[in-house]
Prior knowledge:
By secondary structure, the protein is α+β, with helices and mostly antiparallel strands. Helix content is 22%, strand content 31%.
Amino acid sequence: MSTAAPLACGCERWLHPGSDAATRGILLIVVAGQRRGDRVGDPATWQQEQISLAYVLAVATAAEATVASWNVDKDGVDATLKRDHRLVELQMKCTFDPHFLADGTTLTYNLDVPTYDKLRGAFRTAPGYLGVVVVPRDVATWLAHEPDSILVRCSGFYAQIQDAEEASGGVSKRIHLPRAQKLDSAGLDVMFEFAHQRLFGFDAAPGEAIA
């Protein structure tokens, strides 16, 4: 991964010369920190959005999937992932104040009902999922720069919203995201397998229905 000189705003930028982003002239900007006075402030909304999308892009790349993003969040989708002609769609959220059930193994997130309904819709062509990325409160600790690597201190989890039950009143629906449902390569395998089964039936083996 090549590095460029720090930007005037105190950020740094990285762009792999052979990446899709390079082809389209897009820069992925990762924010190292945001200072308010003499202290590091809580993450801004745009920073949380950026890191959640950067997270899913990195995970998808490792899982040999491509990612398309949308210029507006009209259908409750931030990213559409594609692999072997199959699609899954994610609404990405980020939190620096995670809440877990008493057992300590299940993250909870209150998703607004309109987005919840869009992701669970029966007539979606791609199954809808919620992804939540958990980050430290201090933005300056998100990244650790090593001589040969950049470590990102965050973790991601997912929940299948597709075909979920109707929300029973209220403005939000509490979603349970077990720690076991990590938003990683194995998690994406599960999503793409479900997308395949939903399209071609649960008896169809991967690759069987597409020449």
